[in-house]
Here is the input.
Amino acid sequence: MVALLLLAMLSSPFAEATQTAYAQRDADRLRGLFEQASSRADSLLVRYRLYPLTEDASVLEDLPSSLSDGTAQEYALLSGLWAYRAGEASIFSVVQYGRRSNRLLEEAKARAPEAPFVLLVEGQSLLFRPAIAGKDADTAADRFARLAEIVEAEQVSGISVTEARVWECVALEEAGQTDKAQALRENMLRQDLAPLYRQFLESPPDV
Here is the structure.
């Protein structure tokens, strides 16, 4: 099942262009890709990449609350987008949006628990959710490590090994595994990194 899902993600020029623009922090390019998105999957993907760079609330407008026939990747991306929406919401809506995000993620995991974007979004969810809601940085690090293994074994469009390892480093640091985090960070900083990934390593996001 995982092999079939990975094959379906290979050779996607749109996903590759989206990943490159995201890694280069090129919000203008992502906005252009947003306008060009010709499928629901592409639209969800570029929104998921565009919002963290811009924090433009209009990117989160008109999100469906569910999908009747979505793939694991689509459910995962929609979960991530509702998590972003929860971060912007008033106190009256944050719980509702958070639960919606979690429900969508469970739908994604039920379809393919090791699909690349499922692992990415699940890891981020475990890392950023409040402690009272089940934050688990150790498990998040495991998800990102597994993601890196899968992406390294198969050239998956839309996610790079570097991205997976950067998130793993952030999660390890948050989990208190500082020696492992530092070793991974030093190894990666010796590489020629895209601007966003170098920024994440030098100035990690608040989790």
Observations:
- The longest helix spans residues 94-111.
- The chain is about 70% helix and 0% strand.
